[in-house]
Request: fold
Amino acid sequence: MSDDVAEAVRGLLPALAEGAAGIDSAGAVPAKTMTDLVGAGVFRMLQPKWCGGLETDPVRFYDAVRAISGACGSTGWLASVLGVHPWHMALFDERAQRDVWSDHPDALFCSSYAPVGRLVPVEGGFELSGHWRFASGCAHASWALLSGVVVAEHGQPVDIVTALVPRADYRVENVWEVVGLRGAGSNDMHADRVFVPEHRTLRNYDVALRRGPGQKLNSGPLFRLPFGTVFSYAVTAPMIGMAEGGLEIFLTRMRDRNRLSFGGGDSTADHAAQIAVARAGSEVDAAALQLSRNIRDLYECARRREEIPMELRLRARRDQVVGTERALKAIDLVYAAAGGLAQRRGNPIERAWRDAHTGSTHAANDVESSLALVGRGAFGLYVDDMLV
Reply:
């Protein structure tokens, strides 16, 4: 991450860690925390330069997400999934970008990408209706990116698009009562026959082909990366951070703790605990290093304006879902090794365990189907998936 953002994020971490239990209990990330993240520049990292964004190397963004997630899983999740949306917004028509950023460069976007909405063509655009689920951070957003199917005169589907919708045009339903990531606020959203100008829609097919009208304005390499990688890595990076944070808490507490259940003694001399932390550390490092390597290779291809080979895109998808598995394995090892230390509800290890397992249920973390796609590609078979 850039030096200024890195320093600002480091300065926030103690307060984020201190407030994590309250966020877990209240089920919401407070507005003050979001304001602090905005001030640190986290949400500008993948935003175009023309409107005050940093347009930075994406590896730095995911590094920032991991650091925040290590202190508070819910806050890290929102930093990631809200922080990736300016990248997607940069692919929209210039008019849509200016609708948002000309007056409000720090505007936040939420999303729900399942194409469950219905868009009926009308003069100048579309009439959008639908009920979307799992819109993380929607309480903090002033715009939403909502996917849906464009239907022809007789109701037959003709295209799939993502629509940019202002806060006044959709309703939030508070349904997020869950085990982990309790502060993520991944609530439902409803829209009923709201008008969406045509320039505020973006074809999913074009995004899959790494093109969009916004590239005329935003021509840098960042905006030629595959949507599937940029978005899915925003799901896995927080989980790696949660595992890192849980491991660090465990190490800190174990160094000065006696193993009372076995008559005392130095807990750090426990052979099983030593193996657990070694394995957990290796899983975390492997996940983080592979994700960073893939992003760097993709970014270098985009920088050189080369076609990104399918082999690299599939490798990136493979390492993303396996990275999720590795993060879960690491936090499971820490949770088991902590024993009674981790059982009291709300302690940082137990909370990281719940947060990571909740994050693993995201659709982008479907390990088996994703690895099957990678295997198809390895055998030379056709692969067509929005997350590759």
